[in-house]
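ok so for the tutorial part 2 we go from a plain amino acid sequence to predicted structure tokens. step 1 is just haveing the sequence, like this:
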Amino acid sequence: MPWPAYSVTPRDAKGISLMTTGNKSRPGFLYSGVFDGRGGAAPIDPRLPDQGTSGQGVTWIHLDVNDEASRSWLENNGGLESMIVDALLADETRPRSFSTDHGLLVVLRGVNSNPGQDPEDMVSVRVWIEHNRIISTRRRRLLSIIDIQEMLKQGVGPKTSGGFLSIVVAKLADRIGDFIDDIENRVGVAEDTMTTQDQTQFRQMVTTLRHQIAAVRRFLAPQRDALDRLYRQPGNWLSENDIRDLRDEADRITRYLEDLDLAREQTMVLREEFLGMLAQEQNSRMYVLSVVAAVFLPLTFITGLLGMNVGGLPGLNSPLGFVGSLVLMVVAAIGLLAFFRAKKWL
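step 2 — the prediction. this is what the tokens look like for a chain of 346 residues:
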């Protein structure tokens, strides 16, 4: 059965809705279907009174809140408390989770895998879960949600609302893990090329790594806490298998946080070693200049002394006076170099 035209809304590279329908009161559902309990889903139109309701199975509605009609549908036809609606429509929010008497709200973040975007610019997804209904919203495209849509088309998707949440968390964690693996590889490359790479490029590389680590860790720490609270929430929204899966994902996020902390420490060590290497190079150059200045100091004194325009200077009327002054300067320079060598300063 073909999917209705309203189930997918055109989007730009950032995943922002490009729907320009003439009827602004018609919401553009990014996805709307009901799970069949076997890993697949059947398309529905939530605007119809006999669809999108409980009793048919788990209904999933995915909205782009950049679309005014979708925002209006959620506010007026979603049947949700105002607090839940505000959370689903919020411009910016940190990962969190809490339950009410009617359902479970989860706000999560995933790395930005959209083409041309910075991975550390993490994309949020907000999910409201009831026994037989799921409402999710986003402002930018999140590939983990698209993966679940493809799984449903292939008949290997979630069967329950708790299973949906477990798969979303797992997909987000998979891409976060790939990003952290890339960070660790780049830190290793920076360690190996610190002494051979151009200093400006190396400094930019380390700065970029530290910026990306800080940006991802900013949301990953509260995401771990949100997942940790998630399987402890009161109510029977999640099965035992769902709770076990969420606990495993929370442990995986904790490991990723530890890996990020280690990578951050490594970049700090790299920065300190790089600054130490620069200081050592500067000290070496200053040392060479100091030695040269020390060697020429007595020579400058001799030339200044013999260059005084007064009577009585030695060798003034002798044809060997110039040669004698040269010999004196050479002996002074050799003597000073020998002194430096004896002191092991050279």
